[in-house]
Structures are given as structure tokens and as C-alpha cells.
Amino acid sequence: MPAASVLPANGRFLIANATRNDKIKECALVEMDTEDNPRVSIIVPARNEEACLGSCLESLVAQTGIAFEIIVVDDDSTDHTAEIARSFATQPTGDLDREGTGSGDLDREGTASSCAEKAGSSILRDDSLANHPAVLKQSSGICGTSKGRPLPTADTWGVSENCVRVIIISSLPLPDNWTGKNNAISAGAKIAQTNAKWLLFTDADTIHRPGSLARAVAEAEQHGAALLSYSPEQEVRGFWEKAVMPVIFAELATTYPPQAVNDPTSPIAAANGQYLLISREAYDAFGGHTKIANDLLEDVAMARLVKSSGRKIFFRYAADAVRTRMYRSFGQMKEGWTKNLALLFPNPRGLALLRSAEFLLIIGNLLAAIWATLSGRPNLALQTGLLTAILAGWFGLRIRKAHFPQTANILAVLGLPIFAYLLVRSTRLHRSHNVSWKGRKYGSLPETIMHESTETSSAGAADKQPST
User: Fold this and answer.
1) What is the pTM of this model?
2) Which of 72, 94, 203, 468 has the most neighbouring CB atoms within 10 Å?
């Protein structure tokens, strides 16, 4: 079947579907109502994500029922992240320099006049990158091929299966007082479609379930939320992940209950950077990421901005929408939680002592019950056995809030001392301004951040419902 572009027809648009390898599928007539199908710009920051980026983008380009584009920001990766991202792109555009003006493809006001536009797509963008320069490497319409077929225009975004514009940009050197992720997301937001009603910030290690994007927008509008955030289903493999992750997520769920996060009268705010959907109106009202440029918990900081402005947040555990495997080794997990934990709890060292004591009481009484049984002391065995059961029962009720598999819940008791260690390590490195994340050191974080956690949660604070 010959390739087709997007054609208006009595309020409908004919959209050509294509797979990544440019095999054109059958066309479909899709209703395009800008009220019922609000437009979304999806921004995926990616730094050395070759292990997971491909699967993430496969799940995103397959979304249906809503108009959207995807912007991948390669954050100075040293692996094959950029190549994987470009495999989803088919049509080059041009470069943006530091001032947001490009090599012939941008006008003086910074509005893009890309090769895609010259090929027939009327794409208008805000490319004023004074705060966050980015280099626009490639743009694509998966609804089309590398042979220059037209892309959907800004007024006729595709909503059928696999019909989506994918744009690849690469961040330039990190500005002072910015974290890498904030710099990357901000760069992506600045080139997003200006007529997008929603921005979705999502991590490269996420897998999005079919139809979840359209449902998320509908859920946000149903609740009147300016910010909707999902805490993904967490995949855990191996002993360390299964033992430690449930403990941390259960602690966060207990400390920051979802009803408080979603209550407009409560000061507690939370969001999950793995899936954060925010209205363009709210995002622009705060000046984007400029106010939270150096915040390592950018998701929570954004949630605080939204809630303090009087706008609503909706936050929940969403295994029905998205899943992720946050860390793939103990080293990654140690570095990631070291970055976050001291910022999440008002007294991390006290919490470390409490959880260490809980571990010693459970294991100590269990060992005492076993010893008493083997030594022929039934009364002591009964007493220590009952105490073990009570302590383990309380622990189990807390762990269940984290929504992990039963195997992980059982192993979680062994994760208590590791959690305590990570709390102490996080506190020590934050106080010495020596926190590292993905090859970058952050040595000048404000001390006040460590004492604001009564108003925050992690990227996964409430109901397992932080940031990668």
C-alpha cells in the first residue's frame, strides 16, 4: 500500500501507521477532537540507558487513543543510548546552538523551521534555550519513513497505533547549579509542541502499558489535577533488590499516606519522577525547572510547587499503567538510594536506629525461640515464639503496603539492616556534600533540603505511591 500522510476528511484524519522498520500498516480513520484528545509531549531524559531505553520507547510509540509526541534527551551518554534513541528516528532536522538559534533551521526569534517542516510539516516550537541549551540532532515521524514522507502537522497530531513524532535532542554541558536530569527535562520541555496541553516526564527504565497515556490524561482531568503522578509497579530480581526495595517503599508509604498527598488541605506533597504528568499551564506558571534546578528530588519539588499554588495533585500506585526495574545491581541501588534517602525523612539516623532495633528484635527472638526449643525449655520457647510472631506480623502489615511479591516480602526482614546502612550513608555523604549519581558529583546542595522532608515524599512516597 502506498505511504500516506495525514489528510483531513470531514473532521477526521487519515493516518498512516508504520512500524520502526518503516513497514507501512493499514491506514485507519481516527477521530481527532482537540477537547477529547488533548495533546501530550512526552519527555524522556536518558543518561547511559542502553539496557532499557529501547523497551521504553517501544511501549511509548505503541500508545493509542491520544495525540502525542516523544522527545528523547540524551544526557551526555557514553554508551549506546544515543544510537538506540536514533533508531526510533527517521528524519533529520538540524542543530540548535547555545543561544537557541540553529545552523540555518531557526529564525531569529528561536522558532524552529526544521527539515520536517520544510518537508511539509508545519511544526512551530519554542526553542528559546537560554537557560538550557540543547542540540537538536534528529526528528522523526514513525508515521512515515526515512525517505522523506510528510510528518503529521502541529494541527493534526496522529493518535493511531505507532503514528507518532519522535524527536532526539542532546543536552550540552551542565550549567552551574543544575542537576543533570533537571537540565535534560528542561531542554526537552523547551522544544515541546507549544499547543500541547500536557507534559509527561518519564524515565527511560519504564515500560508503559497499552492505552495508559490516554487513561492517565483522562484520570488527571477527572480529578481536576494539574499534576498526576504514578508510582510504577517495581520489578525486583536477585536477593538485594527483593530484600531492600520493599523495606524502603513500605517506609515511604507509611510516612506519606496517599490520602494526605492527594488532600489539598495537607502540606504533604509527592510525585514520582518515573511518571509525572503536568499541565503545560502549571509548568509554565512556575517557570519550568528553573526554580528547582539543583534539587535532586525534582519530582517532589515540582509537586510542592503545584500544591503550594493551590492546584491539585493526584498520586497513586499504578501497576495498571506502568512498571519499572529501577536498579540492576547492588551498586546502582546503593548509589541511587544514597542520593535520595537523607532527603526523604526528617530524622534519617533515628530511623536507621529504629529499623536496626526492629531487625535485632525479630531475629533475636526467633533465634531464642529456636534455641529454647532445642534446649527443652518450652515456656521460654513459647514466649519468644509469640513475641517473634507479633513483631513479624507488625512488620508484615507494613511491608504489604509496598505491593511487592510475597517472596520479596519474606526476604524484606533481611533488608532492614541494609536500609539502616543506606540511611546513615546517605546522611553522611549529603552532609559532606559528596553525593554522586550517574558519574556526576553534586557537592553544593542547600542544607535546607535535608530538613524539608515533612512536606515531601520520595518519587514513590505514597502507597508505593524514587527518582532515577
Assistant:
1) 0.76
2) 72
